[in-house]
Amino acid sequence: MTRRLTVAERLASADKDIRLADIAAQSSWDQFLVEQAAFHYGQIKPSFTANDLRAVLPEMGQGFLGAAINALRAGGVIEHTGAMVPSTSPATHGHRLVVWQLSARGRAVAAERTARAQGRAA
Q1: CATH assignment of 7-121, given 1.10.10, 3.30.70, 3.40.50, 3.30.300?
Q2: pLDDT tens digit string along 56-79?
Q3: What are phi and psi of 117, to 5 degrees?
Q4: Farthest-apart Cα atoms in the chain, separation
């Protein structure tokens, strides 16, 4: 039986242009896509919330947002900043959301992916 990759390992090994076959091979490819989106958002913004991600995800992907954020947190890729904001989703009635940022591990994965992409471009 093959070992399942952690979120950090999946992100570190994922190329920018992931082949559809690779995504389909994931046990939950839609969650994987939302994880990729959340990770990328963390690379371009100093901090983010589920509100930010809901604004850029298609409606279909929004259902996986909580699971994706939890997987990234559990994998050590993102960390809580200590701040909270109210949700903008009417379904949540304004409950508090955590403000996230890439952790040191998440920044290392991002740097590795950038270096690998630059090496391919050269």
Answers
A1: 1.10.10
A2: 887 766 677 888 899 999 999 999
A3: -65, -40
A4: 50
